[in-house]
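Quick entry between incubations.
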Amino acid sequence: MTGTNRQVTLAARPTGFPKESDFKLVESPIPEPNDGELLVRTTFLSVDPYMRGRMNDRKSYAAPVQLGEVMTGGTTGRVIASNNDKYKPGDDVVGQWGWQEYAVSDGRGLRSVIPQAPVSAHLGLLGMPGLTAYFGFLEICKPQPGETVVVSGAAGAVGSLVGQIAKIKECRVVGIAGTDEKVQWITDELGFDAAFNYKTVDNISQRLSQLCPRGIDCYFDNVGGPITDAVFSNLHTGARISVCGQISQYNATETPMGPRLLFRLIEKQAKIEGFLVFQYADRHQEGLTQLAEWLQAGKIKYRENIVDGIENAPSAFLGLLQGENIGKQVVKIWEP
Amino acid sequence: MTGTNRQVTLAARPTGFPKESDFKLVESPIPEPNDGELLVRTTFLSVDPYMRGRMNDRKSYAAPVQLGEVMTGGTTGRVIASNNDKYKPGDDVVGQWGWQEYAVSDGRGLRSVIPQAPVSAHLGLLGMPGLTAYFGFLEICKPQPGETVVVSGAAGAVGSLVGQIAKIKECRVVGIAGTDEKVQWITDELGFDAAFNYKTVDNISQRLSQLCPRGIDCYFDNVGGPITDAVFSNLHTGARISVCGQISQYNATETPMGPRLLFRLIEKQAKIEGFLVFQYADRHQEGLTQLAEWLQAGKIKYRENIVDGIENAPSAFLGLLQGENIGKQVVKIWEP
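Done. Structure below.
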């Protein structure tokens, strides 16, 4: 197959908040699949907060993207040519081939989409964010009926699911988000018991104390920083905190400082645990099955913010870092 | 019984590091036991870091000591008069009657000493510090053979036991302490694999990285602050941190600030948990039995720093806050 493959590569390592010029749209010929390989054409790509970490020249739990390399990330696509026994042209697959319109794969790391669900949902509810919410909340927080659960980043891909899972588990759920529209969505549409816009309250801790008069039993943290500090002032004895993300800190140029919080853990006999979705890899199928079941039963609602065209992937990502999306942010690359 | 009861009361709430003048030695008549009560004469009293918190006018997990009230704390004593069916004169008991030479009790909260062990050991190895080490380390860190365990405050009442329990569990143990003499004791006498004086190393994090080349699997934290920050830079994936105390922070006059550490928990899929020994109350007998068995088998060594006379309890406590003790700090009040 001849033609042009457009890719977004890392052009510069950002200092602080990334800029459009840290990315570069490049063109190359569409690659040819060898024996055992297949060619996939991207339908959707995912932009997620963790990608900010991959832009730094520092080994974290995963290797950084190198300068000139295609940006990493979850993708869906349709197989358009195949020398691979497992996949045939026309198959819709999910993978990790990053920000590009075409890719060759030997099939490793690919899985087929669930036909009953929209393809793009495999980057959200039925993908990494869904599994993150499911395992990170249930396994670490172990929520009990009647407990108070607070979620930060509550209108994002993961947070909006955590709140709904907490409602399924019969908890009282309070969401923290950054716009009034988000607050309205999670309370009116998703069934959160309460929510507030942290940017417009005078005192986050005080607002939390009003909304959680018996203290916070479970906290699912997507953001870190002052919001999380305020949660720490309102913990109930025996609280469990699941640390999923710290998006408020990802663009820091110096070591972020904050109030020391370990004594509060003693006082409240509380636990904080960080996790990566990969650590539950052997149970992913269980999570996907349960999430799909809740979706079909109408117990979970799902929303996407869709931007069109690979050339807009960088701005979609920058918008995500600024909290512009409601629900899962995806970039639509091609409609078969 | 007539005579004088000397007591140490809280005279002033300290700002920052406490002073001798925050305490007052007062005299009162020896109290008389009523029906069902007994009179006990104190043999030893315990001074412990948690008492600093009780001197503040802030409800933490326990109520503060009121101005003019006898200082709180663990005690041992001999029953010298009794109208109580459970205890008779001559019995040695352990309780919580605080910094005074005599006290009346209705028997609640008292227990008998284990005759095979020295009386004073019931304030350390066979008391609150021993149970703190036993449950706080084993239940939260869940150490596995071959893992690397770091203990701060490693020559104190709790830390010295945690390190020895970790050795019994076949871990590699590194202790952090504040004098060369302490370092020598825990390595030469207690069998820690390595230890260092944090006051004389150039870079705590670097020293830890040399001594823990495979990273730190378990950390038992007695101190908090910069020592704990350095541990966070050296965690192994899946690390478990038990937060027992934060003695470096107890005299702070402003909210202590430090590097934000939650992202590291994500990166390392690590857990921090704070605890109070009381939460394991229903298993205390199990802990005491095991600790006594280890002591008799020579698997655990035990050291006390003994100061004489109730008038010296304040200075013993102030010395403890400055790290002057090796092993358990007790005050000897009376030798029957």
